[in-house]
Amino acid sequence: MTQLKKSFPYLVSVLAAFLIVGILLWALKFNPLKAYETILFTSFRTPNGFIQTLLKWIPLTLTALAFTVPLSSGKFNIGAEGQLLVGAIGAAAMGIIGKDLPMPVLLPLVIVAGTLAGAFWGLISAWLLYQFNINEILSTVLLNFISFALVDYVATGPWRDPAAGHPTTIQIGQGGFLPMLVSNPPLHSGIILAIIVAAAVYYFTSKTTAGYELVVTGANPRASKVHGIDIRKMFLFSMVIGAAAAGLAGAIEVAGVHHRLIEGLHSNFATLGMIIGLMARGKNSAVPFVAFFIAILEVGGSAMQRTIMVPVQIVLIAEALILIFILLSDIIKRRQK
Amino acid sequence: MEQDNILTMHQVCKSFDKVVALDEVNFELKPKEILGLLGGNGAGKTTLMNILYGLYKADSGSIVLKDQAVTILSPRDALNHGIGMVHQHFLQINNYTVLENIILGSKVSQPLTSNYTAEAAKIKQLCERFGLDINLSDRVETLPMGTRQKVEILKALYRGVHILILDEPTTNLIPQEVDSLFETLKIMVKEGLSIVFITHKLREVLSICDRITVLREGKNVISLTRKDASDEMLVRAMVGDNMDLDKSIMFTDRDKSGSAITKKETLRLEGVSKVNQQKIQELTDISLTINAGEILGVAGVAGNGQRELAEVVMGIQPVSAGKLIFNERDITSLSTKERIAQGFVYIPEDRLADGFLNKASVAHNLILGYHNLEPYSRKGIINWKNVNESSRKMITEYNIKTTGPGEIGGNLSGGNIQRVMIARAFSQPSTLMVAHNPTRGLDIPSMDFVYQKLLQHAAIGASALLLSEDLDELLLICDRIAVMYRGKVVGILPKEKFEKYEIGRLMSGYELESK
To answer: How close, in Å, is residue B16 to chain A by CA atoms?
Structure first.
């Protein structure tokens, strides 16, 4: 009963968002029912659709965790985009430099290099916060811009692939490719990494004392400090862990999908990650599920564009509306008290 | 009978969510009397008067003023009917003068100028009539608490009230100021006003009130004149039948011969000073010792450095100069965490900011600071089964009203949040407890429970630093009392020399000013 009661606002939010989108589609002279059907069922109709959904789910889950883990301690990491890109740069660089290494050596190196590079990018903001109390929202956002320039620099520099018409590096060594779990349609093994990370984050925040300290810091930093918790260390730590997750997402995009660094590879994962994090109300354990739902919408949205020519932005509107309604439901709940 | 009353409230009910705050409460006030509205925290006294003053709306019930039913929907209505209220926290603008504070929000004779001669004359007249000695051009922030309260009373008189409600008016006053307040109240009654005096202090009621009404858990218990009232009757009425008065600390004369104080020193502060980031001197050259088994009280008007002292002892804020010696070891540079590991425990004053996690569960709250200890955790892994089990035990022992360890802290009421903090503090063996206003917001049996716990804690040889604004509380259970004024310790009195007025004199900085 309580479970049903809890999920009620979510259900209503989704329904209301779809209703509004439906009206919009109808006004644009599309068939809303057909659009709904495409959005919701593409993922489950064909093996390809399902695997596409899983492939979206990987970076979405990781970038959402990049947002929610720092949020557990009360800090806002808006820089998952930059951390993902720097992670991708790190992974590509390692894959190109060590391109002749055998897979058992190169693959772990690529993944670790990407993760550490992302963590380092987050560490800059975290350290500025720790040392000088510089607002992390500002520093993470600003570092995003620097990361775009860095990608351009690397993708147009000595490693540039002259055959490509778009800023792109040459391919990383074969040993750095993530092995495929299913070859046709292709599903790479990055999904295992994402599942492990999501499970580890859940275990860490709910079962360990360090995770407890993280959560209570987020609940009331001042009271946590009064009771002996080093909250500044918690801020630093959570920011770096979050950034590492984003870096891993970048590494997986390189090692699993593109096999090279491509400008624009970050797509809108980080923004969606934040939306997912907010829909999950910052709850790490809910992130994988919300991410899966958003992945369905994303895949369905692309399919809708292809089959019935509805612009894919409609799905973004739907996602934004769902979030707005969920946040509204909080306010309504508070008013009722 | 009814004609005698200047004010009658009939069958007033009020609920907040599911909590019934007032259950068919009746209330009568006669002309020219001081009525004591007595009860512990959560009894509904303030709620009832807030309804009368228009701050809350009653769910049902009626108000009859001089034989006429009235509806009061806002403080403005209340003032129009001649009802005024002085709150526990003064509603004053610190950097305004007394005059400006008094006329603020009322109509003035020359609205386009700042010429308030007419108003000042009227207020001076009131001062004379009621024997209030206040300089109208003083800024209120420079005034002592007792005078600021008189400004508040004057504010109500200026608006022509004939019924004045005072909510726990003696809370922040030193004994001398309390006496002076009582004198004023007597004059006011002589001049024709009726006064409602809300309090939880028995002695005050018996010394000033003509009639006494006792509330408990939102219900009328008794109403009687002072002649008919006895200590015992009122105590029983306030606490109910469930409390064992023979075991209580508050209502029995305690035999101190069994005291466990030894000569062994637990904590010593040597010349501790603290200057904050704004370069304001918060603590000046404080030297204190606390022995094993001793409860050292710290008295003072709120905001004279008590909080800073507590936080310096706990290592939450660093000292600017001086040393802290704990069991003959210099601990000045130890972190809060390290001090907790040494057996320091802290009950902070500001429970919502410093002591409680609104957004986490009751269980999270109950283990805060001790989460690294067995049985709560082992090798960095929390054992939630043990945590929940201990939480349930604490919930029962400390009478915390909650649905269980998993409930979100923010759902708890103030008194229950305080109980969570008390339970947490006493859940671990400790060598030094720093408690700042630990009984704030608790009902009488719970207050007594805290005193019993503190004394048991002392009896096994542990020490306590009890900072409190409630002088009666300090006099009741402390072995010595240090008095703070403007960040200094201006006197330390041993138990033989406990004397209310002497402490009050120190609290007001008399010693210091006269030098």
So the answer is: 9
